[in-house]
Amino acid sequence: MSHLSNIGTVKDILSRHGFTFSKKLGQNFLINPSVCPRMAEMGGAAPGVGVLEVGPGIGVLTYELAQRADKVVAIELDDRLLPVLAETLGEFDNVKVIHGDVLKVDLPRIIEEEFAGLEVVVCANLPYYITSPIVMGILEAKLPVRAITVMVQKEAAARICADPGSREAGALSAAVSYYAQPQVLFGVSRGSFMPAPDVDSAVIRLNIRPQPAVSPRDEALFFRVIKAGFSQRRKTLLNSLSSGLALSKPVLTAAMEGAGIKASARAEELTLADFCRLSDQIFALKISENNGK
Ligand code: SAM
């Protein structure tokens, strides 16, 4: 079956299966036939590649991925879509649909068992309510994945891919750029979906770095510093860190000075290297504090 994302085809399939959309599961299905082939191409679906898809819906993107990659594994939570997918993807023997919640399945095991010998990429039109947990979950688990290409809300794309120092920069963009090099690939208007959501979307690609961008002495502390730094955006870094990390201002002032960061700095002015030096300074001060006890 081709042109799966034609609006007539989508409507026909859904009505034959008596399907009604669930807002709770973020079900906005693509009806713009030009989007999925572009996403599959730019997402890296190709010979020698295994693709992990989240939320195949009726299989519009899955279809394009299966035509290009060696194997596609698609995880779908809504059991009402399983018979639909059996029909729309019936012609492929390189597609496996797993019924489950992507936040609960054992992704490392699935990747190991399903994609042996293949380079792995993630490609998905994500349910927006779990964009950050999915993206951060995959990055933090350090899964053997080369790239993550996902459709997200336009605003989320700007926040995820923000350059350090820009207005949109935040804890999410800092964490993403630690693990990956993000880029916005193309915008997708709300009219490309059925039902049309209230916001426009964009496809982004995160190219996973072979090694994280910087090497903090204590990774967990590094992320706590980033999170605390951005937690109260109207405050200076010194004030947000002091309340977020429960450290005294003199201690933090010394750490910031040691890291070469001016006392009046705000979190969004810092690069990842700045955050790394700062968390290393805090780490060292904490150790000497503990030794002095
Ligand atoms: N890929 C299809 C498309 O582009 O038309 C559907 C995309 S729709 C935005 C999101 C899909 O994710 C839906 O099929 C929904 O049922 C599924 N979904 C929602 N929450 C999920 C979860 N926790 N785990 C797996 N799939 C989920």
Keywords:
7-stranded mixed beta sheet, two-stranded antiparallel ribbon, elongated, 18% strand, alpha/beta, Helicase, Ruva Protein, domain 3, Rossmann fold, 293 residues, 41% helix
Please describe what this structure looks like:
The chain is 41% helix and 18% strand. With 293 residues, it is α/β, with parallel strands linked by helices. The protein has two domains: 7-208, Vaccinia Virus protein VP39 (Rossmann fold), CATH 3.40.50; 219-291, Orthogonal Bundle (Helicase, Ruva Protein, domain 3). The strands form two sheets. A seven-stranded mixed β-sheet has the order 4-3-2-5-6-9-7, with helices on both faces. A two-stranded antiparallel sheet has the order 1-8. Helix 6 (131-140) links the parallel strand 5 (119-125) and strand 6 (147-153). Helix 9 packs across helix 10. The longest helix has 21 residues, at 272-292. The chain is elongated and about 70 Å long. The protein binds S-adenosylmethionine. The site of S-adenosylmethionine (SAM) has 23 residues, from strand 1, helix 3 and strand 3.
